Amino acid sequence: MTNIGRWLANGAYRAGRLDPSNRRSIRPVARGLLLLAVIQFLASVLQSWRMDPEIPQYLPIHTLLETVSILVSGMVFAVGWNSHQSRFSPNHRFLACVFLCVAVLDFSHMASYVGMPDFVSPNDPQKSLAFWLVARLLAAAGLLIGTMGTFGTVTAGRRTHYLLAAGVTATAGIEWLVLCHPEWLPISFLPGIGLTTFKKVTEYAVIALNLLAAGRLLARLRAPQPRSEVLLLGAVCTLAMSEFFFTFYSTMTGTYNLLGHVYKVIGYVFIYRAVVTTAIDEPYRLLEKAKTKFSDIFDSVNDGIELIAADGTIVEVNRTAAERLGYGRQELAGMCIADLCNLDDAALWVQRCEHLSRHGRFTFESSRIRRDGGVITVEVSARMVEVDDQELILGISRDITDRKAAELLLLKESARNQALLRSASDGTHILGADGVLIEASDAFCAMLGYAREELLGMRIAHWDAGLTEAALDEAVARLVAQGGRSQFETVHRRRDGSVFDVEVSSFTLELDGHKVLVCSSRDITERREAQRHIENLAYYDAVTRLPNRRLMRDRLLEALAAIAQSGKNGALLLIDLDHFKDVNDTLGHEAGDQLLRSVGERLTQCLRKGDSVARLGGDEFVVILNNLGELGVDAAAQVAAVASKILSALDRADQVGGHRYRNSASIGATLLDQRCTPEDVLRQADVAMYQAKRAGRNGMRLFDPTMQDGIDHRAALEGALQLAIDEGQLLLHYQVQVDAALCPTGVEALIRWAHPQQGLLLPAQFLPVADESALTLPIGYWVVEGACAQLGAWRRDPLTRGLTVSVNVSPRQLGAPDFAARIAQAVQRHAIDPALLILEPTERLFLRGTEGAIATLTALRATGVRCSLDDFGTGCSSVRDLQRMPLYQLKIDQSFVRDLFDDPGAQVIVRTIIAMAVSLGLETIAEGVETQAQLDLLRALGCGGFQGHLFGRPAPAARIVALLRADAVLTSP
Q1: Which domain holds residue 59?
Q2: Same domain, 255 and 343
Q3: Cα dihedral: 656, 662, 668, 671 (round 10)
Q4: Does one domain contain both 820 and 943?
Q5: First vs last Cα of the chain: how many Å apart?
Q6: Residues 803, 783: Cα–Cα separation, whole Å
Q7: What is the DSSP string of 780-832?
Q8: Are residues 318 and 211 in the same domain?
Q9: Is the Cβ–Cβ distance between 254 and 55 less than 8 Å?
Q10: Who has the most CB within 10 Å: 15, 778, 806, 956?
Q11: pLDDT tens digits, one per residue of 634-691
Q12: Phi, psi for 530 (deg, rounded to 5)
């Protein structure tokens, strides 16, 4: 089969003049299509003998195949809709819209099949085939249109959503037509007779559309194409073969009908793979290409590049460094640099590392021992860099063996020196004290593009573009007068006017009784590019292009040092975006990066001259303010003004990922103190920023030492609370709930902390700390587990077996991916009736979005657990949200009950809540009922359940049972 597939693929290339680059991707597709064609040929031969046996269990098989088709169509929509590849995503987004509609129609076809429960209207073959034909026409037309060209204008921005809305609207219209007016549609199938002419013509039309799409794809394959185009070719060919089966079956449950469905599933899988190839595989290919490009630059630099750890271990070298020493790159990695130097240079390694740590840069001469034992002299320009969070020494080494030899010979004999000078590999040249060129090497002449005769006698200003002519003459005279060696970087100008960076090493020499300047120029253009790239990675954030944490720390050190010199204050602002995680979770990380870039631009616009901004990491930014007032009060006022400007700039709506998102931030500020380290300053700003968030966000707080005391107290409380969980200091009390007849119906579980020193603590004294830390989840699960255990114990007592237990749950618990599963496990573990467990999320969950909460509550309802919305009336929920949420009860907040007789508005709110609950079919329960007057009024307003001190304070389970046995709930203290 492999050889046949290769033969078919080669034949296709010769017949269709397809591009050879597509050969590798088309071979497996050709083999698959050949196998499908052989099967279809054999089936058509059997059809000529009128063989179309019915399959006894056809309905479940049909349902399975259609379910797979619907799932694949849904995945095509999900992957194609979220594709971010600019070249192909328009076509894939168009196909995503098409296949979402196809998925809906295929579901209607499956649900309308004879034998399935009636779908809206009675099921029959006409209804099922109507959905089928529309879905096949839509899929074929969509694939054909998708191969006609790019949809950059049709699917740009919000137009994609308009296209999707149009498709969904059209699909809804088709559903209405088929379900409500089937008599308007032509007949497709006659039992006992078979397919009608209309059905066959329509199927042939679908085949034609698929073949046209295949022809269009074959034409495009004459040029190099991505693998997704070949997969789409396999899809349309397979779908065409699929439709061929549906032109000659005689029974709705026969073999040909089944084969057609199988071929359709295979075609859909081809389409899904095409979309995945572009949306997922292609980005990884581009990333690998970028890595290869950087590796090529790294290896193409003519100088040797060495990355060395502080202990002298070689981490990585480029190709030039390895070949120069006669080793392989892998052999050098892990070796010690001291083993490649002579004894004198090896002994200087520690001293040079210390010099680097103090000054950051260092240029020195060293030796390198080749594999064959030969020794070369190198000039090393070293600096400290950070790669993958590791401090490394970046050494760029240049072989100066020839230059050193030239210098040595120059001192011995002039004629021989001149010949050696001209043959030196570097751009070596000799200048007189007046800046006139006396001699030059062939390499220097080639570097500038002049003949030697043209260069000799030329002044330095003709080729050096780094300084003015007067400055150059002054520099040459100074270097000649000072003597010794020097090294500097400048810019040379070629004969054609182009300029390039060079590094010049020079020393003075007496020649024929006159002092001259011997220079060696080296083109460092590639090295500069590599350095800039490495510096960019080390000091700048990849997303916002702002300085990163490392560069920010350096600038903070400079600001702290400037305070002592100038006497003026400075400040640091730590800016944290509010609810940024919601953007990443709902819109994706690309949208989050887009928002971060926008924030970075706005912060830059808010700064004064001399200030700086950096991205600390995540959604945190740092602004360093310099040259503030000398008095602390003046500096604080200036900080407040800048913070206000920043908050105003950030507090506005942005277009993020196609959605409007209103951004805000919390700012913590602190005045700089030269006695503090950068870490101390950041810690102070973080404390102040935390206070700004606690104050309601979208604000600024200036650090005060008392803030740290509060943080320390909270940290101590958090540690004690963790110990309480581990040592079993937490316990549950219960408060009775009654109905309108004052009969006990259930209890609410309320957590308490039996603190070893402070006694019994109420939730308000420790739960806020838990909510702000990672402890809220384990505490929440502990409460649920305790409530389920209590229900399990009560089910054996006739007096308590019917009582419900209500448990408060936080939005963070509802957001946990395994929350519903863990609740179901607790119910099963304690063998309780799930309807007796009532979970009470607060109305605050609407502040974090309803979609995830609705999904979790729906999953809980499927287990039998019921949900009551706590503190209702204090949040921001709407009637529409309540209709979508699987609730059974609304719990009226106690603040309204408390104000029933003092605030007329409270009665109006309670009456409205009760009326809303009745209209939605929900029960109501009022919490905080403490007086008989409140109870009477709530009864009159129609409230059905009550909870509060009037019926008993929270107490241990044994106390509650004792009160119930004594029928003393209403008289308990």
Answers
A1: 2-285
A2: no
A3: 80
A4: yes
A5: 87
A6: 17
A7: HHHHHHHHHHHHHHHTTSTTTTT-EEEEEE-HHHHHSTTHHHHHHHHHHHTT-
A8: no
A9: yes
A10: 806
A11: 888 888 889 989 988 888 777 776 667 777 889 999 988 888 888 888 988 888 888 8
A12: -65, -40
